[in-house]
Amino acid sequence: MARPAAVEFSYKELADESADLSAKIEQAFGPGGLGICTVSGVPRFVEARQALLPLAAQLAALPEDAKAVLEDPASRYNFGWSCGREVLEGGLPDTRKGSFYANPLLDAPAGSDHTAAAHFPALARPNLWPGDQLPELEPALKALGAIVVSTGLLLARHCDKYCAAKGGHPPRLHDILAASRCHKGRLLHYFAPDASDAAADGANWCGWHFDNGSLTGLTSAMYLDAAGQPAACPDPGAGLHIKDRAGNVVQVQIPPTHLGFQVGEALQPHWDCPLEPPVGVSPADVGIGQWQPGLSFGETSERTMDEYYKAASAGVRARAAQARAGQAAAAPRKLRARAAARPLRAAFLGRPVTAVVRL
């Protein structure tokens, strides 16, 4: 039996509010789908992807003191630069990749509401940018992020139409995302491997996980050599892998000219918006992050961040930095998109020579 693949939408059909895309919506996100789709023909996407993704390697190559200024411990490193702060399966700190987080639409999501920034730091803290160290990063990330969000809103509108026709549910997803102040972009860079990495379990490079948002916009992989020039993928098994509801693991390819969208665990409402299960669903059956009855989206996110992002010891990070400094810069690096679905699970498998963009 053929396994399902990512469903493709054209930007033109998503932009047509009168189009009936219910069959494709169900194929992508319904009970038999993988929880992922791609969108072709997105205006300005190809140029924006090309402008942003190579900057991941440049950011990672900045001096350690320059990256330290971009760290934001108060947000659990969910704004600015983060390396060695996330814990992998097995409890090991993830020193193999560096991440840069920013809200692509709002530099200060909480505005003047200092209480929100204090209570929900992973969502509401202000952006940090490298400024003169890498001035092109801010406009490039904001440009691609705006394209991802606007295209995702078109997809969300058709998801609402499908749900309204299927079960009489009022349209909500589009409006919640349109009003959200919690969009989060993540630019990821994977460092070149060392000898110890060669024997490591490939799944640990980005193990099975769920995203806590509603839709995750994904770019395809981009591979760069040590000089920052495009390179071929060194491993055909690398990329995004999804485990479907039957337990089958499927590798999904996103064409370079397509924008991908994968469903996540929950919506992305305002941080103080209460999360309630659908009518007729027991709270015991809801498996969204660290959610418990009565928690808001922000409270759920903060508890989830506590679980997944934990600081590694300074010694581990120092040894990782020394190892990277001694590596030859000959191995190609790879940019891969990261996502997850509920109740589907996703992981990245392959050789650890990557950099990643998640928006």
TrEMBL record:
Highest taxon of source: Eukaryota
Protein name: Non-haem dioxygenase N-terminal domain-containing protein
